[in-house]
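Hi P.,

Sorry for the delay on this. The queue was packed all week, but I finally got your sequence through. Input first:
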Amino acid sequence: MGMHAFETDARDVALVVDSDAELSHWRANFRELPHCKHVRWDDVKPALKLGIDACLKAGGRDITEMLDELMVRYRRTATESRLEWDHAREVVAAVWVRVWEQNRKCRADAPADFIHLGRISLGLRAR
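Then the structure:
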């Protein structure tokens, strides 16, 4: 997957994601994610990849605005996963929060005119 960046226009600042490093982090820690204590890595990986991709393609949208689209994509691409969407969306949200938090830390040394590209929704829970 590698390093990816997202940029919308001259006013917005790119979101940079090292997807390989992100997946490595989650491979070591995926059992700490909601509903993942008793599932295999291969069951969680599609939701993690979707979360990374959602960050890159958000275009300033909040994750809650993307849920229907993400559900369709997950059900289409994660056909082998035993993790149902109601649980997978919490994994997607956890990735979303981590990626934006990582980028927020990188902005500490950014110029004063840095503009935040997206919003983070905390507390997203399966219903």
